[in-house]
Amino acid sequence: MTELDPYEVGRSSDRAFWADAVADAIEARDPDEPIVIKGGVSPSGVPHLGHVNEIMRGYFVAAVLRERGHEVRQVFTSDDRDRLRKLPRRLADLDGNVVGLGEVDAGALGRNLGKPYTDIPDPFGCCDSYGAHFTEILRQDAERLDVPIEFVSNTDRYESGEFDDAIEHVLANQDRAREVLGQYQAKVDEDYVPFQAQCSECGHLTEEITDVDLEAGEIEYVCADVEAGEETIEGCGHEGTASLREGKLPWRFEWPAQWDVLGVDFEPFGKDHAEGSWPSGVDIARNVFDIEPPVPMVYEWFTLDGEALSSSSGNIVTVEEVLELLEPEVLRYFFLKDPTTARDFSIEDLDQLVDEFDRFERLYFGEIETGDDRAGELATQEGELAARAYPMLVGEVQPERIRIPYTFAAVLGMTDDADLREEIARREGHIPEDAPEWAVENALARVERAREWARRTDNEFNYELKRESIPSVEFDAATTSALEDVADVVEEGGNGEEVQAEIYEAADRHGVAVADLFAAGYRLFFDLEEGPKLGPFLAKLDRAFVVDRLRQER
Ligand SMILES: [Zn+2]
Ligand SMILES: [Zn+2]
């Protein structure tokens, strides 16, 4: 079997879409049907955008394989028998509200360190356990993104005995297991036993196994301390006996055991695994379990507005929050991009991502040409990618769909009147005469999302624009004339910088203090003394309205 480099799969081919290259590598193994694609995480805390890699990357590969006529099963393992090692800073309820630890009984939660996630009460009280709660959020995320994926609980698998054979096999071949893992982990010595037993007294998982009797199916243990990062989780010292189902395999063996039990053909993972458990997993799969490891693929991590995403530090954004800001197909598009490139998910600059998606969509429908603003080869690839992958982003390909540009949707969001929003969108040419009703409705739904974006980032669109009627203001003759000069520049199509410059020049020309002219502008548009940088902002509004308002006509 040729060795696959997880950094190269999906990359080393002339395919326009990385998922096609991955599918080629899977087909080359001549897999049994259904082809099994896996992802998975420990439900340690609030699932964030980075975790969605474990769902969406596999989704595109599954979609490609299905299109090629294969039967595919996409599974997600919740590695929920892992132990809680550390309390996260933030939690989230099932409605997507992210809260600090102070909102729940953190003391009670802290007493559960060292126990499997499925043996810890749900801090919100709505699910069977802590593990079930955070797995449920991910399951809902998959549903929101319309990904058909089967969730599998590791704890369930252990309890039902599906891991029995794998555990017995590893314990019957302990010498080989130690020899193989010992090449990767210094802690593996002659006393190391590849099993963690759950203490019948305190519920902690312990690594101190004193005897294994496979005939009787019994494992003797001492409930010992466990190192968790810088901290030590204390064991109770109890000496007891566990069955094969009362505990778990250590992760380095559990992962290959999952491949074996589930028959996994492809699994994407982050680069932490690429350095650690993947190389040992390949070795353990072949030399302990006697199976071939799946086709691997490393994905790069995301940052969130330039900072590392991290559940423990609390720098997170959830899928639910993101979907308040953009359509599911736009988020799916984010995951369609090359997984081997590190990317920033910028909420601040979210308009750029949405614009990029809109462009991708228009490319697919042939409404714009590639290459007009990009170098030849890149443009061809982009066109090929759109033709190939766009249908996988949307439930149904609909040429009549309408997209209001995101920043203009944010402008429309500055007024609450739904009819007025539609009227302006129509007047500005963003909604065609004969548009079907469903398309208009979907287009205007973006206005609410852009409104939420403005609120969340408190950007230049987070103001209420006084569109319906002119605020009651009285200006002196000089100010009125200066405002009219600015109106002329807007009417001539001046850009943001030009309008901004004209505000300074008109003030100077008419002997009005610059600050007063700006204040007059804010008064006219927001009935406030202050607002966003006025020139660039006015240039983003519909021109006729701005001109009339500056002339105090409406
Ligand atoms: Zn719950
Ligand atoms: Zn104990």
TrEMBL record:
Its EC number is 6.1.1.6. It catalyses: tRNA(Lys) + L-lysine + ATP = L-lysyl-tRNA(Lys) + AMP + diphosphate. GO terms for cellular component: cytoplasm. A motif ('KMSKS' region) lies at residues 308-312. It comes from the Archaea. GO terms for molecular function: ATP binding; lysine-tRNA ligase activity; tRNA binding. The keyword Ribosomal protein does not apply. A motif ('HIGH' region) lies at residues 43-51. InterPro entries: aa-tRNA-synth_I_codon-bd_sub2 (IPR020751), aa-tRNA-synth_I_CS (IPR001412), aa_tRNA-synth_I_cd-bd_sf (IPR008925), Lys-tRNA-ligase (IPR002904), Lys-tRNA-ligase_SC_fold (IPR042078), Rossmann-like_a/b/a_fold (IPR014729). It is found in: Cytoplasm. Keywords: Aminoacyl-tRNA synthetase, ATP-binding, Cytoplasm, Ligase, Nucleotide-binding, Protein biosynthesis. Belongs to the class-I aminoacyl-tRNA synthetase family. NCBIfam families: lysS_arch. This is Lysine--tRNA ligase. It comes from Halapricum desulfuricans. The lineage of its organism: Archaea, Methanobacteriati, Methanobacteriota, Stenosarchaea group, Halobacteria.
